[in-house]
Please model this.
Amino acid sequence: TGTYDFKAAESKWAQVWDDLGVYKPLDDGSKERRYVLDMFPYPSGDLHMGHAEAFAMGDVVARYWRQKGFDVLHPIGWDSFGLPAENAAIKRNAHPAEWTYKNIDTQAASFKRYGISVDWSRRLQTSDPEYYRWTQWLFIELFNRGLAYRQNSPVNWCPKDQTVLANEQVVNGACERCGTLVTKKELNQWYFKITDYAQQLLDDMEQLEGHWPERVLAMQRNWIGRSEGAHVNFVIEALEGSEDTGRQVTVFTTRPDTLYGATFFVVAADAKLAAEIVAPEQAAALEEYREQVKALSDIDRLATDHEKTGVFLGRYAINPLNGEKLPVYAADYVLADYGTGAIMAVPAHDQRDLDFAKAMGLPVRAVVDTGEEDPAVTGIATSGTGTLINSGDLNGLTKEEGYAKAIEMVREQGTGDAYINFRLRDWLVSRQRFWGAPIPIIHCDSCGAVPVPDEQLPVRLPEDMRGEQLAPKGQSPLASNAAWVNTECPSCGKAATRDTDTMDTFVDSSWYYLRYMSPNNSEAAFDQEAMKNWMPVDQYVGGVEHAILHLLYSRFITKALADLGHINFTEPFKALLNQGQVLNGGKAMSKSLGNGVDLGQQLDEYGVDAIRLTMVFASPPEDDVDWADVSPSGSQKFLARAWRLAQDVTSAPGVDFAAGDKSLRSATHRTVAEAQELLDAGKFNVVIARIMSLVNATRKTIDSGAGAADPAVREATEAVAILLSLVAPYTAEDMWAQLGHEPSVALAGLPAVDPALLVEDTVTAVVQIQGKLRDRLEVSPDISEEDLKAAAMESANVQRALEGKEIRTVIVRAPKLVNIVTK
Ligand code: ANZ
Ligand code: ZN
Model:
């Protein structure tokens, strides 16, 4: 017999899998279909340990479902537009495609070596014109439906990257990528109207409950941020001697019941409104204050412990319910882009308003008698339930009654109504960068924004731009390419210009799971028949860093496409698994810590299977793996031990297992049955532990009893090979071939479980005290002495007989006898 040689196995099997097409779905309806999807990689350099973990987990699911008899679609592609390629191209005076496709080739080769069971024929890249032609189609579909619109608005601007950032890409006021402080800039930008779907995005989460991690659902809910309340219009009293007749400003409040408790009014300092209404004598003070506010992040501004500052605007807002005149302030604790950017301040019942009132010496009036101490005295706003006071017609009502009544009153007055506010903003999709899908719009002086006709798609990126020509200059690099920009209007034929922005790469990834249906289809984004057969994705696997944006955008696009009649479901991903991170020494791997582990080096040293096994065995899939705590060499030894079983089996394929050792047979059948329960429950690591036990039990049987010729040894070893194929495909193939099977263990299918063999054999143990029989226990023949002793001591009969007695010694002869000797 030979020795376990992972390198030989690795070089042999990849070709066989390719030739047999074992990972291609049959797609003929002969088996129930399942779709397993890994979040597709970004092609930065070669694969790293994080990829190795994520893809090992996804592959367990794909391989398990295949062995279980499903027709499995498990595709791969690349999210290949984006900044790093462009930055590399600027540096090297190249085109971004060069860097991108070189890295993709490197990663593809590594994925093949890593033995991921994907259908390579469906491979896609979002930067391929054949792909982004359909991203452009998607844009036009949304545009035609009024779900893509252009608007001049202040946007987050990263001065270093010279690009617009979505709100989501601003972290604590800084650029998510480079950490530079983000500023605001006025630009004409494209948006997708995701806010139209805010409520549906919330409602449909019901379908995901129990199938997606609860924390991801919570993050999405929070991001959408639904608040119930009311819009109430306040009139800003006209300035004396001015022509302005008093303009209306709407506030959003979640507490209309506190309308009588409003003692002042605040507008966001950075909102246009503040500058528009400020009285002339306060204009300079406001300007100075606005400069100060610019430097703060939203998080700082909203923090309850943030010192309250603001400027009186010299104006008064009139409360529609009681006609009271409230002084109007500009302050930073009110955000310009939340609600309406203006609030009625109720210091008695809102802590931030109270802090502001204290800082500015403004009155505090409690309107809900909560039984707590007066907020004006304690400085602590009260928010409990109680009866309304100081509230005119609302007096005596409960908070809830007051809430409804106040809304009714403003509605009757025509000054307000119930309103549901969402934190969610529309999705800013245009980028002033080169390496993305060009926005397929032509601007015509006469016709406005005209979509590029379908037969002219794709609008291709120019191939002749490189290096400095790609550098961001505050406008899109494409704008400098006159030959590309100048075109004619598809509608009137006059000279017109192309939109020079490209799409956010999140647009590319918001629909890629649909393109896998028919990646080479040149007639449609996705084939209808295939879509009905495969979608939605049964299991999506990827990092929790995509908990909000990518998943929210994909969910939105799915809903929009459903409304447009292109698909027949509303949620794209039925189940989601967030794998953990790979750490080293308890910390994320990073250059600065110098604790990086090179995947290629690990694969060279221990082999693909040992690394994959280590990833899966280390912890439950959602937990982090600390590479400092795991043992790839231990995994390698275990694989060698499993592999040697196949070498030692002497019975022939097809031998009648029924004649085999009963106890090993039952261990095999139990392992196969339990493995399925564990896999269904996502406990992949425990499955590995079960396989290890079965390997040990098999070796024990070889070393005793009927030895290697026992049919049960073959049965167990075959089961080990099939189960191991989920994590260690090369070793499993070698074992399967050694056991005399062809052509691939991937086609073996799970062994059938015989329920009769699941019943564990038991033996009867007797428990004696002073030689006298006190109880009989049914126990496993392999029970340990400690376990048998513990079982005996727990017996009610034994405890009764021992009452008041002192034990001298306990003699245990597992599995048959326990003899307790008392003093
Ligand atoms: C009066 C009031 C009385 C309020 C009270 C609260 C308690 P959520 O739940 O987050 O939606 N608000 C509205 N727009 C704001 C903005 N742009 N910046 C800062 N605060 C803003 O919060 C809604 C409440 O936050 C609103 O209800 C408003 O204050 C404030 F006892 O109105 B409330
Ligand atoms: Zn025109």
User: Anything to note?
Assistant: Residues 671 and 690 are 6 Å apart (CA to CA). Residues 444, 446-447, 489, 491-492, 494, 496 surround zinc ion (ligand 2) (CB under 6 Å).
